[in-house]
Amino acid sequence: MKILVAIKRVIDANVKVRVKADNTGVEMANVKMSMNPFCEIAVEEAVRLKEQGVASEVIVVSIGNQQCQESLRTALALGADRAILVKSEDDIEPLAVAKVLKTVVEKEQPEMVLLGKQSIDGDNNQTGQMLGALLGWGQGTFASKVEVADGKAQVTREIDGGLQTLSVKLPAIITTDLRLNEPRFASLPNIMKAKRKPLDELAIADLGVDVAPRTETLTVENPPARKEGIKVETVAELVDKLKNEAKVI
Ligand code: AMP
Question: What is the extent of the structural domain holding 145?
Fold first, then answer.
């Protein structure tokens, strides 16, 4: 079984994001970029399925600029077999990403597509669901456990107040939640080996997909600064303030 994993390169989770002075977006110049954390979990899950003998090949795909190669090489060092970069200089929206991924799926014919549940830059949480709809495939989103047997995937999802387990017929879309696994670190020999693994490049314009944006960002602003807190001396004072000032109890 082939698994396709979609990975997005985003501003590193440890970077303090700064809004541009003209409020058109966030500062991207000289900012550390990394693989979206939920995509790392997706790569790890695909590699584990390969190690269990369930998957035969793990292909990683990213849509973005030339630097996305770095994230793809990281995924290859983590155990993916080959990579595809669909080159685009523009920021593309989830619907366009899903349409591009659909063309890759049609060419590669994987039986499972693993995606992160959301990218931490746009917080969209849309691409996997849209890809499922475009392909007419079943989907198990926010997976915290995945088991594959008899042409089906059992996907456990964390929902309010408990766990839900779905059975989805393959081929299917699965999006990863935080507790699915703990991604490994790439070892130095694997980083070296990854340099020789195949990485194909395609131009987005050659795919015949309409990637025109459907939304326009009007302004990006910092959240309002938090008001300074106060220290209380006693529990009685705290209770008094909650009752009479904040009026929450
Ligand atoms: P989103 O819908 O933007 O929150 O993204 C959810 C998931 O879709 C990500 O974790 C990736 O697996 C995938 N994805 C989104 N954008 C891209 C992209 N430009 N290239 C590859 N995969 C992407």
Answer: 2-223
CA-proximal residue: ligand 1, atom 8 (nearest): 127
Distance CA 246, CA 70 (A): 50
Atom of ligand 1 nearest to the CA of 176: 10
pLDDT exceeds cutoff 90 at 4: yes
Q: What is the CATH number of the domain that holds 202?
A: 3.40.50.620
Among protein residues, the one with the nearest Cα to ligand 1's atom 17 is 8
* CA torsion angle 121 185 145 2 (round to 10): 90
User: Looking at the domain assignment, is residue 234 inside a domain?
Assistant: no
Q: Identify whether 150 is part of a domain.
A: yes
Q: Which of 41, 30, 54 is nearest to 8 (CA)?
A: 41
pLDDT in the model for residue 36: 98
Q: How far is the CA of 124 from the centre of ligand 1 (A)?
A: 9
Instruction: Write the pLDDT tens digit of every residue in 137-177.
Output: 999 999 999 999 999 999 999 998 899 999 999 999 999 99
How many domains is the chain partitioned into structurally? 1
